[in-house]
């Protein structure tokens, strides 16, 4: 084989290696994007199920405690391990009008463990005047009972709660990966 033919063969081999490398890089990028999309869909489904379970809890609270419709469970805020995981910890959030944040009480509302896109439990915050823990001291809830949360986007833009009547009574959070530092 002459030198010119060898140079042509070497060029073809280099082109083939380059094409294979670029193809592998593109496929890996598509796979990462598909994985991220699947995780986002999982988090969205978990948030939707948690919302439905909370609404169901609000409706069924009336049956358990006549005259007290619309109350929400306290979050799972036990750090000592004294309570079952996923259980609302009413005794730990008794302060009237004081909002509380903790893990979502999935067991209390009848769900399987609720997790976000990174596998972390969902978090949940409830307005102080909507907590079932304050049942003995709760005021009558009606359409005029405001929530206490203003909801902001990650860029600081107000999403909900411009007026007291538009404030959220509860917030369910699907945490992302831990921040560096």
Question: What is the spatial order of strands in the main beta sheet?
Answer: 1-2-5
Q: Average pLDDT value?
A: 81
> How much helicity do the residues have?
25-40%
CA-based shape: elongated
Judged by helices, strands and strand pairing, the structural class is: alpha+beta
Q: What is the helix tally?
A: 1
Give, in order, the helices and strands.
HEEEEE
Report, as a whole number of angstroms, the end-to-end distance. 61 Å
Work out the count of structural domains. 1
Question: Any idea what the radius of gyration is?
Answer: 26 Å
Main beta-sheet annotation: 3 strands, antiparallel
Give unreliable regions as ranges.
none
Strand content: 5-15%
Tell me the total number of β-strands. 5
General description of the model:
By secondary structure, the chain is α+β, with helices and mostly antiparallel strands. It has one domain (44-173). It contains one helix and five strands; from the N terminus they run αβββββ. It has one helix at residues 3-64, and strands at 100-103, 123-126, 151-152, 158-160, 170-173. The chain has a three-stranded antiparallel sheet with strand order 1-2-5, covered by helices on one side. β3 and β4 form a beta hairpin. It is elongated, with a radius of gyration of 26 Å. The model has no long low-confidence stretch (mean pLDDT 81).
Search tags:
single chain, alpha+beta
Present the secondary structure layout.
Layout: H1 3-64, E1 100-103, E2 123-126, E3 151-152, E4 158-160, E5 170-173
Antiparallel strand pairs: 1-2, 2-5, 3-4
